[in-house]
UniProtKB/TrEMBL annotation:
Species for this entry: Candidatus Brocadia sinica JPN1
Domain of life: Bacteria
Record-linked CDD domains: TPP_PYR_POX_like (cd07035)
Keywords in alphabetical order: Thiamine pyrophosphate
Family, per entry: Belongs to the TPP enzyme family.
Full protein name: Thiamine pyrophosphate protein TPP binding domain protein
PANTHER family: ACETOLACTATE SYNTHASE CATALYTIC SUBUNIT, MITOCHONDRIAL, THIAMINE PYROPHOSPHATE ENZYMES
């Protein structure tokens, strides 16, 4: 028997659910949670400089490890700052749990005017799968379990829980019997099921694929996590159909995958790229997002396109007003395995189409790469010195486009590209979260100067934690600009800086154990 607070009970539940990292800004309203951290050494607390960075670090941790993490903020303003960072998890289908304190339970719903008080659950509603308020001490475990189930089932995504401050600060006796009654086995919270598709829809889609001669697969949202839809990847390689990824599925396929053609940016930023896509007679889309939707709208009326197969977990994602659409509401992994197993057509025809498509992609990459001199050198160096276990984060518009050209043939299974829907400078806190979650892997952030400076102060907690990762910074706006100001800021945070030619990056510049701390390379 022991007497504990609601904050201690919260951490106890998180331990039972397998959570190892919490990213949080301290505040008076979550004082009991912070007091309880010393009693639960299984959970590591990371304190960034702002709530936005806390959510981005949690997203980076979850994206690179495939495990849930927790972002915790404070009442009112803290919650508002967290929202912009949590949008990264929302757009990339990352199961991050957001927890925030709330005013006393008798002052909310309807809201009573108070300092920093606001309807927090309504603020999080547009960017979370599920959110709730915990009104009683005993229901903390139940709501945490429910949150993880909601985060993982169907399409994964972030969830949010508000816990009133009087619940967090309330002391109660927790006997062994009572603990067992309010904490069911944690494995019940970890949903790993898959949605089986309708037999008629799967058969119709399979027949459509068999009739095609030049199909293309486009992967969008929800695939950029380790092990996500592994069956789909293996099936696509065996089918021999060219695969295009977007920034939300970067890293799922890489240079050693037979069917991988490249990133969508490779095609969307040139006329010849769109002409190449218009040769297809069947578009197979899984996890539609703004990038794949843009390709769909551009080629749906092409005279060559005979049909469109769309595989989605969420039926609301099916494209509207599309002729010859064959919708499949199912898990993409099991669906693609079914397509590969039931397709009776000679797969050599698909492979011949893939080989021809791949040659044209090579020419397209060469055409686009002429615009990125510095990036060409950076990625050429990294291709020669990196291993398949290294983690790369790319931030910056020009660099992201360059990565689409130069990373398509590299063996990078852990590649995360920040896109235009992310808040500016998301790359640095995202990289810190990845470094925390992968202590044995080398983490490299490739960014431009403007992106680096948005969250530059997050380097301070990274240095204090002894994290080791590499920042490769190139000024894509002001070429040959003096880097003295950047060097001064970075060195002031105890982050070593060296100016380097992009072609002279060495393995020791990115390997943990050699760099000792966050290190920056300024490309001259």
């Amino acid at each position: 028997m022991k007497i504990i607070t609601g904050g201690a009970l919260l951490l106890d539940v998180l331990v039972q659910c397998g959570i190892k990292h919490v990213f949080s800004i301290s505040g008076e309203h979550i004082g009991t949670v912070y007091d309880a951290f010393e009693k639960f050494p299984e959970i590591h607390l990371t304190v960034p400089r702002c709530e936005t960075a806390a959510a981005l670090m949690a997203s980076g941790y979850t994206a690179s490890t495939g495990c849930s993490s927790v972002a915790m903020s404070t009442v009112g303003a803290g919650v508002i700052y967290e929202v912009s960072g949590l949008s990264k998890a929302w757009f990339n289908y990352l199961p991050v749990l957001s927890i925030a304190p709330q005013l006393q339970s008798w002052k909310i719903k309807p809201h009573q005017e108070n300092l920093q008080g606001c309807n927090q659950d309504e603020i999080f509603f547009p960017i979370t799968k599920w959110n709730t308020i915990v009104y009683t001490w005993e229901r903390i475990p139940q709501m945490i379990y429910r949150a993880f189930r909601e985060a993982w089932q169907g399409i994964p995504g972030p969830v949010h829980i508000d816990i009133p401050v009087d619940i967090l600060f309330r002391y109660k006796v927790l006997t062994k019997k009572k603990r067992q009654s309010i904490m069911p086995p944690a494995e019940r919270t970890m949903y790993r099921g898959a949605i089986a598709g309708d037999a008629f829809c799967l058969k119709e889609a399979c027949e459509t694929i068999q009739k095609s001669e030049r199909p293309i697969i486009i992967l969008g949202q929800g695939f950029g996590r380790p092990g996500r839809y592994q069956g789909m990847k293996e099936a696509a390689n065996r089918l021999g159909i060219p695969v295009i990824t977007t920034v939300h599925s970067s890293g799922v396929f890489c240079g050693d995958d037979y069917c991988y053609a490249g990133d969508a940016s490779l095609f969307m930023n040139s006329t010849s790229g769109m002409e190449l896509l218009n040769k297809t007679d069947l578009l197979i889309i899984a996890g539609i997002d703004p990038y794949s939707e843009r390709i769909l709208s551009a080629i749906k009326n092409s005279s060559h396109v005979k049909g469109i197969v769309q595989v989605e977990i969420d039926p609301s994602s099916f494209a509207d007003s599309i002729p010859n659409l064959c919708p499949v509401h199912a898990d993409p992994g099991s669906s693609f395995s079914y397509f590969e197993r039931e397709t009776k057509t000679n797969k050599n025809a698909f492979r011949a189409w893939r080989d021809d498509f791949y040659k044209n992609c090579d020419l397209l990459a060469i055409e686009l790469s002429k615009e990125f001199k510095d990036a060409r050198g950076i990625f050429a160096s990294l291709k020669n010195i990196s291993s398949s276990n290294d983690i790369f984060i790319v931030d910056g518009k020009e660099l992201s486009l360059a990565a689409s050209c130069f990373f398509r043939k590299a063996i990078y299974k852990n590649l995360f590209i920040m896109d235009d829907r992310d808040i500016p400078g998301a790359g640095l806190p995202f990289a810190i979260g990845a470094a925390i979650g992968n202590p044995d892997n080398n983490v490299v952030l490739i960014c431009d100067k403007n992106s680096l400076f948005y969250h530059i102060r997050e380097l301070q907690p990274a240095v204090s934690m002894g994290l080791e990762f590499t920042i490769i910074c190139v000024d894509t706006v002001n070429k040959n600009n003096n880097v003295a100001d950047t060097r001064l800021v970075l060195e002031g945070m105890d982050c070593p800086v060296k100016e380097i030619d992009p072609l002279s990056i060495k393995r020791d510049d990115i390997v943990k154990g050699k760099i000792k701390k966050p290190c920056a390379m300024m490309i001259m």
